[in-house]
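so my prof wants the structure for this chain in the tokens format not the other one, which i didnt know existed until like an hour ago. anyway here's the sequence
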Amino acid sequence: MQDLEILKEIANRARAKYFEILESHGNKLSEKVSKGAYGHMSSFMDVEVENEIIRLVEEKHLPFNIFTEERGWIDRGEKETLIVDPIDGSNNAEHGIPFFSVSLAITSGSLKDVEIGLVKNIPLNVDYWAIRGQGAFKNGMKMSVAKERTGLFVLYLGRKAKDKAYQIAKIGRRVRDLGCASLEMITVAEGISDIFYYSFKNGGALRIVDIAASYLIVKEAGGLVLDERMNELDMEMDFEDRKNVIALSSEEMEEVFR
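here's what i got, hopefully its the right format
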């Protein structure tokens, strides 16, 4: 089975599991049940969807180690690793806001080594994917960044946001803060937004599980993915590695950060 088809099957199984949980355990969806690999409390929903993904990998004897948001590193003695965020935008999912995803990527090393990534918008059943050197796609239709400025900036603007985020927000014609980094980042790849910017006052905002797939999708659509020092982004499969992240439709948009 080709890797893209594998990721599609995993994403479809994750989506089905989410709706199964919603139907049978709706009142338990957001219940915190255990501490995840990153040290925060994980919800029943996150844990069950992640367990479903791990079961599928093991049932089909897929040739991957697994690095997940909840369980962390699962060494299966393989050369490649499947990076999993079972529900990105958990708060949206728990409160019925229809903007959340499952994010999957395959790498042989760090973020820069990701060869294939897929993000499924769970409520809309839309797949975004990229294969290194082959472009980025939305349900099979090729995507590219905007050729001209759209005037839309996607920024994190919560209480942890740096003052710079609010300064940049004033430059944009329109601003959105939607609560699901993987899908928000892809708005750059789709040509919807010019800028994606997640930046915390203290420490880094995002982890490799949040953006591994979206990173490749933006790059393959012709965009840039940078760290806060405006260098090309890289991240390790490490629980301690969190970074502030910028995605841009073009080098021209770097002027906004100067």
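also thought this was worth mentioning. The mean pLDDT is 93.
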